[in-house]
Each structure stands twice: as structure tokens, then as C-alpha cells.
Write a structure and sequence with these properties.
146 residues; mainly alpha; globular
């Protein structure tokens, strides 16, 4: 059964699927086009990814997709998709806010492992909003239709 765009983007399952693909692609693209430093990135100082971020994005993307598509794991985690998405939203919100707090610090500015710049911070805040919408929007719509 295919999903419409609302289910694809604004349900926990759709968020894990779409977000998992986005994270996996972002990590892979990061290794090639956005890697190393602001001067080496195709987008300059606005958005660049170091290897720590790339490995984290690839790993999180694989985990999200595995939670949906690995037999046994998907049926075990399905009742918790909503809570997983809420957790992802909280983590993204943390890094979005934290990135603004450490913006002026020397590289790497995030726990000595990675660097967060304006593009990262904005992307993390967008992901947090998307995760919360996916976790709560459709559920609220279903309750209102009763």
C-alpha cells in the first residue's frame, strides 16, 4: 500500500522512512561535497560537515530505515515509532539550540568532536519541528474527527 504525502511526511512511520533516507543521503553527500572545512565545502561556511557528522548522519539514517524494514526489528519497534520520533525531535532541538550557544567557539565547537554552524543549527531546528509535527499532528487530526 502506498503512502500519500501527508503519511510520508507527517506520521511517525513516514518520518522515519523519509528522514532515514534524508539522513543517509546527507551523510553520503557530506563525505563528498560538504566535507572537511568551510573552505572545502560546496556551500562554504554556511554549511559544511566534518567526518563525525557524516558518520552520525549515515548511522542514524541506517538505524531509522532498519527500524522500518528489518524483519522482526520492525514489528518489535512499531509500537514505539511515535516515541522514537519524539526522541529524535528532542535531540534535534537540543543540537539546534546548542549550536547557537557555541557558534563563536573554535572548531570543533561541539563536545570537541564536531562543528555546528548556522546551516546545521537551522537544519536541526527544522528537523525538530518536522519530528514533532509527525509525532503529534496526525494524532491530533484523528482525535478531532471523532
Amino acid at each position: 500500500m502506498s503512502m500519500n504525502y501527508r503519511e510520508m511526511l507527517f506520521t511517525p512511520k513516514g518520518f522515519l522512512m523519509s528522514g532515514g533516507v534524508v539522513l543517509l543521503l546527507l551523510g553520503l553527500i557530506g563525505f563528498v561535497f560538504l566535507n572537511g572545512s568551510a573552505s572545502a565545502s560546496a556551500l562554504g561556511s554556511f554549511f559544511w560537515l566534518d567526518n563525525s557528522e557524516n558518520f552520525a548522519h549515515v548511522g542514524l539514517g541506517v538505524v531509522a530505515l532498519a527500524a522500518l524494514y528489518v524483519p522482526g526489528l520492525n514489528s518489535m519497534l512499531a509500537p514505539y515509532y511515535r516515541w522514537i520520533v519524539i526522541l529524535v525531535g528532542l535531540i534535534a532541538l537540543f543540537f539546534g539550540v546548542y549550536g547557537f550557544l557555541v557558534a563563536g567557539n573554535a572548531t570543533p565547537n561541539t563536545f570537541g568532536l564536531s562543528n555546528l554552524e548556522l546551516g546545521d543549527n537551522l537544519l536541526h531546528l527544522i528537523v525538530a519541528a518536522w519530528a514533532f509535527a509527525a509525532a503529534f499532528w496526525m494524532q491530533r487530526s484523528a482525535m478531532m474527527s471523532r
